[in-house]
Each structure stands twice: as structure tokens, then as C-alpha cells.
Design goal:
It comes from Pleomorphomonas carboxyditropha. It contains 9 helices and 14 strands. By secondary structure, it is an alpha/beta fold.
Length: 241
């Protein structure tokens, strides 16, 4: 290849990287296909550009983030606990009305879904499955409620567990209704969250549940987080305030 051609290719790549940086400053996170469309090149070209600039970008599960994005977008339970509190409360009241006294339900992690425990039926014999400590702590104080806590490696920032044993346990369970959380719910890119270790549990539960709901406050709509776990049509209903 002639040196002039190499220089032209270098300039074009630098221009693409600059445009990608600008787009990420606006959006925060970008799917690979959207980046390719924005730049007018193939997804393979975008991947090569990303590989040449690890100091600028992270590429995680099909999504592009600014370098350091794993740290800046990491979900922390304590930081999220009081945001949109009223909307979360209203969404959880709606969700709890769908629970019948003898159901076996899954309640996901986060700062929204744990609020459901305040409104669940107290008659009958309810069973609650979770992998989140902040859900388990509330459930264990309730009367007439069985608790199944999926264990494994503990993640302090989200108060959740992960591991193969938890997945094997889910495969042996019957789940009548699953109430899942999401950091973002996008009409095109589906349900996403901040923590990749949550994805296998969420997907295993979706595969086992008779009915599946995503419970979010409306600030999460049309947002995208790094870790994809479901398309919107995998949920029987989207519950928000």
C-alpha cells in the first residue's frame, strides 16, 4: 500500500473516532449497529477502530462506552435508593396487585422492586425467590412467606449473588410470576442493566416464569445500559407509575 493511501486511511479513521467520541458525549452509550449507521461504515470497521483506541472506548456486550465507562456507569444501590422514589413506589403498588396469595414469585434486585414486599398478600402461603439481599431482608420479616435466596458470589455494590449454583437452582423451580428490574427499557434495544453478572439470572428466570413483568419508573424508558438481557416482547406487561 502506498504511503499516501495509508495516510488517507489514517485520517479517515481519526475522523471516525472523533465523530464517535462526540456521539458518545451526547448519548453516553451506543450500540455497535447504531455506531456503524452513524459513521456510514460496516460493524467490522467500527470494531477495528475500537480495537485501535482502547484508551478512548470500551466495547461491552455489543455496546460502546467511553473508556472508564464501566466505572462511571457502575450501578450502586446506595446512590440510586432515593431517586424517583415516589414513582418507584407507585409502580410497585401496581405490580403487587398482580400477586395472588399462593403464588411463587421472583423479585429482582435494585431499588424499585424491593418496595413490592410492602404490598404483597399476607394471607395464603406466598413463596418469594430472589438473589438480592435487600429483597431477602424485607421478605424474611413477613408472615406466611417462604423465602428462596439464590446464593453464590456476593456483589456488594448491588447486594446481589451470582454463580452456576444459582442458575441450577432456578432450573429446578416453578415460578408463577417474575417481576424484573431494568436500568433501561428501550423500544428498539430492549431491557438492559448496569451489571453483567445479573444477566444470566434474569434470563434464566424469564425462561422459567409463567408470566413476566418488568417494573420500572418512567425515567428508565428509552434508556440503554451496558448489559442486555431481554427484548421488550419477552415481558407480558411493562409496569410503571
Amino acid at each position: 500500500m502506498k504511503s499516501r493511501d495509508r495516510r488517507e486511511q489514517f485520517v479517515k479513521k481519526a475522523e471516525r473516532l472523533g465523530r464517535l467520541e462526540d456521539r458518545l458525549r451526547e448519548a453516553g452509550v451506543l450500540h455497535l449497529s447504531d455506531a456503524a449507521g452513524h459513521l456510514g461504515v460496516s460493524e467490522m470497521t467500527v470494531r477495528r477502530d475500537l480495537a485501535s483506541a482502547p484508551h478512548l472506548f470500551n466495547y461491552l456486550g455489543g455496546y460502546i462506552l467511553p473508556a472508564g465507562g464501566e466505572r462511571t456507569t457502575t450501578y450502586r444501590l446506595d446512590a440510586e435508593a432515593d431517586t424517583h422514589a415516589e414513582a418507584k413506589e407507585l409502580a410497585c403498588r401496581k405490580a403487587a396487585r398482580l400477586v395472588e396469595p399462593d403464588d411463587t414469585i421472583f423479585i429482582d434486585c435494585g431499588t424499585t422492586t424491593p418496595r413490592m414486599t410492602e404490598y404483597l398478600p399476607v394471607t395464603g402461603k406466598l413463596t418469594v425467590i430472589t438473589y438480592a439481599m435487600n429483597v431477602a431482608e424485607r421478605v424474611m420479616k413477613r408472615p406466611n412467606t417462604n423465602l428462596i435466596l439464590l446464593g453464590g458470589l456476593f456483589h456488594a455494590s448491588s447486594q446481589t449473588f451470582s454463580g452456576d449454583e444459582a442458575l441450577r437452582t432456578v432450573e429446578r423451580l416453578g415460578i408463577s410470576k417474575a417481576f424484573l428490574s431494568a436500568g433501561g427499557l428501550h423500544s428498539q434495544h430492549g431491557a438492559t442493566c448496569s451489571n453483567f453478572h445479573e444477566v444470566p439470572i434474569k434470563q434464566a428466570v424469564l425462561a422459567r416464569a409463567g408470566l413476566s413483568y418488568v417494573v420500572i419508573d418512567s425515567s428508565k424508558l428509552e434508556k440503554i445500559k451496558p448489559a442486555f438481557f431481554a427484548t421488550t416482547d419477552q415481558f407480558d406487561e411493562i409496569i410503571t407509575e
